[in-house]
Design a protein that fits this description.
By secondary structure, this protein is mostly helical. The chain contains eight helices and no strands. It is 71% helix and 0% strand.
């Protein structure tokens, strides 16, 4: 048996030893309720497979290192509720070993994605409403709300390990909107100096070292 086979077998042995069927079954029931589907549906099965993969990874199985991220993304994109995320997290902690933070990262990522996705429709509705407000304050508010939407989209992509050029595109769009907001304040307000950030430094590649 080679090293990989040995590691795999050790991971399987640890998983089987620590497996808690009561918690596992309860999570499946919670997921079915959140997803508004049957307990035996494909969507619930897919989620439970991701949970198993993540648990195996926490047992040091070599094939599922990023399973926690797939699980967190699934939870965030499918509006899995906070209590269910907490139940999954508690289950994963059974398997997490010292200095391994992937169960913790799953919890934080899943909850952040859930809340970010929840704000998206509301944020875009606010952008649309602010677009109809006359005067520089309305225009500035519109630009700021639009900037926040782009920045949230960039944050979502960062959390799911999305494409870096796409993240940059969202950041650029957000910065353009933010700049547009500052122009409104400088051009139209009675105290333009309050909206001048000429001393603000943006890091570049030289700050890497």
């Amino acid at each position: 048996m080679n090293t990989t086979d040995t590691t795999t077998q050790q991971a399987l042995n640890r998983y089987n030893r620590l497996f808690d069927n009561q918690q596992y079954t309860a999570i499946a029931d919670q997921l079915a309720a959140d997803l508004r589907t049957d307990r035996d549906s494909i969507r619930v099965a897919d989620a439970m497979n991701l949970i198993t993969d993540t648990a195996l990874s926490l047992c040091q199985h070599p094939h599922y290192a990023m399973a926690w991220l797939k699980l967190a993304t699934f939870c965030g994109q499918n509006a899995v509720t906070i209590p269910t995320i907490d139940a999954i997290y508690a289950y994963l902690l059974i398997f997490q070993q010292a200095k391994d933070t992937r169960a913790d990262d799953f919890e934080g990522t899943a909850k952040a994605l859930l809340k970010a996705y929840e704000t998206t429709d509301t944020s875009r509705a606010a952008v649309s409403c602010a677009n109809g407000v006359h005067g520089w304050r309305g225009r500035m508010a519109y630009e700021l709300l639009a900037a926040s939407d782009y920045l949230v989209q960039a944050a979502i992509q960062l959390l799911i390990h999305g494409n870096l050029p796409y993240i940059r595109e969202k950041l650029q769009s957000g910065l353009r909107r933010l700049t547009g907001a500052l122009y409104e304040g400088i051009r139209e307000s009675d105290t333009p100096t309050l909206f001048s950030f000429k001393g603000t430094y943006f890091p570049d590649e030289h700050d890497r070292h």
